[in-house]
């Protein structure tokens, strides 16, 4: 019985220690990648502002071809919402809404995840003309993990996890637009 009490005390102590550590761990994360596309900024922006086009270059949109999709509103305008529902755990269920557009420069989106966990994150795509025929595209995500879930930020790098998918998507976007 003494050993069982000690084991229980050690477990409680470890849990308490982790909860204390979580108080000091950052809660926010941000990830951004960029690519230069050999097309004028207007052509690039007109393509990326349409969320339906993400089906062609976003790694996440292509993970489950059988996922259920729905949309509300006019694509490429503030208030447009596209939603997804997949049986695949890594795809899950959620929706993406265009919350702001700076025409020709930037589109901001809010992502609301339902499954496999609830979360609200933000994404953006920025287009900047390098010259008349080259455009720099930045695609980024930022979000927050509430206490005590922010402990997970010690265990894995959001920059590495999301960054490789952003790079793959931007590479595909470049290929599509430069055809």
Question: Notable features of this structure?
Answer:
Alpha-D-Glucose-1,6-Bisphosphate, Chain A, domain 4, single chain, alpha+beta
Summarize the structure.
With 179 residues, the protein is of the alpha+beta class. Helices cover 34% and strands 36% of the residues. The protein has helices at 2-22, 41-48, 54-57, 59-62, 152-155, 158-177; strands at 28-37, 68-72, 81-85, 93-102, 106-115, 119-131, 134-144.
SSE blueprint:
Blueprint (H helix, E strand, L loop, with lengths): L1 H21 L5 E10 L3 H8 L5 H4 L1 H4 L5 E5 L8 E5 L7 E10 L3 E10 L3 E13 L2 E11 L7 H4 L2 H20 L2
Antiparallel strand pairs: 1-7, 2-3, 3-4, 4-5, 5-6, 6-7
Strand adjacency order, main sheet: 1-7-6-5-4-3-2
Annotated CATH homologous superfamily: START domain
Fraction of residues in H or I helices: 25-40%
CATH topology: Alpha-D-Glucose-1,6-Bisphosphate, Chain A, domain 4
CATH architecture: 2-Layer Sandwich
Structural class by secondary-structure content: alpha+beta
Quote the average pLDDT: 91
* Assigned CATH class: Alpha Beta
Number of domains: 1
Could you explain how this protein is built, in words?
- By secondary structure, the chain is α+β, with helices and mostly antiparallel strands.
- It has a single domain, classed as START domain (Alpha-D-Glucose-1,6-Bisphosphate, Chain A, domain 4).
- The protein is 34% helix and 36% strand.
- It has 6 helices and 7 strands; from the N terminus they run αβαααββββββαα.
- Strands 1-7-6-5-4-3-2 form a 7-stranded antiparallel sheet.
- β6 (119-131) and β7 form a beta hairpin.
- The longest helix is centred in the N-terminal third of the chain and has 21 residues, at 2-22.
- The radius of gyration is 20 Å and the shape is elongated.
- The termini are far apart.
- The mean pLDDT is 91.
């Amino acid at each position: 019985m003494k050993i069982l009490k000690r084991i229980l005390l050690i477990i409680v102590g470890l849990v308490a220690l982790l909860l204390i550590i979580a108080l000091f761990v950052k809660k926010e994360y941000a990830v951004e990648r960029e690519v230069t596309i050999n097309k004028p900024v207007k052509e690039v922006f007109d393509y990326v502002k349409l969320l339906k086009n993400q089906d062609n270059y976003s790694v996440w949109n292509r993970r489950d071809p059988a996922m259920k999709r729905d949309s509300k509103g006019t694509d490429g305008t503030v208030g447009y919402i596209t939603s997804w529902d997949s049986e695949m755990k890594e795809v899950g269920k959620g929706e993406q809404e265009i919350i702001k557009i700076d025409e020709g420069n930037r589109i901001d989106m809010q992502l609301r995840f339902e499954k496999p966990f609830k979360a609200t994150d933000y994404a953006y795509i920025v287009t900047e003309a390098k010259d008349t025929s080259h455009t720099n595209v930045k695609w980024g995500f930022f979000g927050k993990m509430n206490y005590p879930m922010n402990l997970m930020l010690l265990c894995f790098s959001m920059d590495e996890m999301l960054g490789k998918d952003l790079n793959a998507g931007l590479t595909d976007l470049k290929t599509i637009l430069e055809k």
